[in-house]
């Protein structure tokens, strides 16, 4: 929809989003939404703590420490505090650096790695309650997801929506934490829209997790600037020069979809958020599930494989942009590598995404036999968000095995259970936190709505 088709109702899109954020009350949010939000907050904190040990995270922490800032907000796994925007930058980066953080289909991106760092940083500065953190998080996810409904898939064909929609979601969550009224919230979204950025070409580089950190920083900074008295355009989403038109082009977005069903249902419950069982691009998860299933059923040996065919949606190659990866980072965005390394190692975890594994002769041999193609039934816009995959392996003796996975393990259709979520959290944190601190952290998150001061949790995860 372009500017010529807009109505007076459409011109109030940003205002309606701001009104929703300001009117959000935890007491009126469905219990299921609150419960699910704590699952995603737990996962986000877990992968952030794990990410704090990554070599590139150490560089981010070094940068943030050198820049300095009033010590109001904790940098996870670092032992120090800094300003909320800088803490959000570091924590967002660390949440996303291993690509183990959650995703949401309407956003086509990573909600928690962008929204939670901004909410936690400002919440710690004000020492708000756990209930307020949940409110801010839910508000941010709702805004990012609903905007995504109106501008995707066109927007995510060109931009990495983690950096763009994540920034708007972070600003909405930040506005909720700071207790903004409608006009101030509109201004925060206006300033954040000018901060929103993220190029898909940076996937597979150390700049990609910067998209998440920068989105969190931008959202927190936008809200703090408004608190100082600065203003952004109050109708930033709509109009000729608005976010939707500029980031999608005319006739490639639908404003009404953005405001349809605000909070009914909440994005957190429908479509929901997917928690990753493997640390790589979400579009590779069904391929990994398929190959691990075939391995379990048939005990395939890598040297026996003659050819691998993998059928996916037409949008999948837009995310898996490294068919011939050279590094572990590029391997996270390569279906061929993910399938090959799973075949060789019979598992997929953080240790699989290393430069050494990418250059393993057995993996390289399988990559030469791997062929990605678009399934004929996954070529239209209705299938653009689908993560379905059909994997067929032909052995040298002529035997063939095929497995189709429509939804990966960890998706809302096949969610991780409580034991699996907690195991992931413990696996992520065991090298950083003591067992007692892990237990305390899990307990605080499970009962976050009863937590009087978020600083109690921040003191643990700061380490």
Name the assembly state: single chain
Helix content: 40-55%
Share in β-strands:
5-15%
Structural class comes to alpha+beta
For the largest sheet, list the strands in their spatial order. 4-3-5-6
Cα-to-Cα separation, first versus last residue: 49 Å
Shape-level CATH architecture of the largest domain: Orthogonal Bundle
Describe this structure in words.
This protein has two domains: 3-272, 2-methylcitrate dehydratase PrpD; 282-405, 2-methylcitrate dehydratase PrpD (60s Ribosomal Protein L30, Chain: A). Helix content is 53%, strand content 7%. The protein is built from 22 helices and six strands. The strands form two sheets. It has a four-stranded mixed sheet with strand order 4-3-5-6, with helices on one face. A hairpin with a 4-residue loop joins β5 and β6 (400-405). α4 packs antiparallel against α10 (208-227) and α5 (112-126) packs parallel to α8.
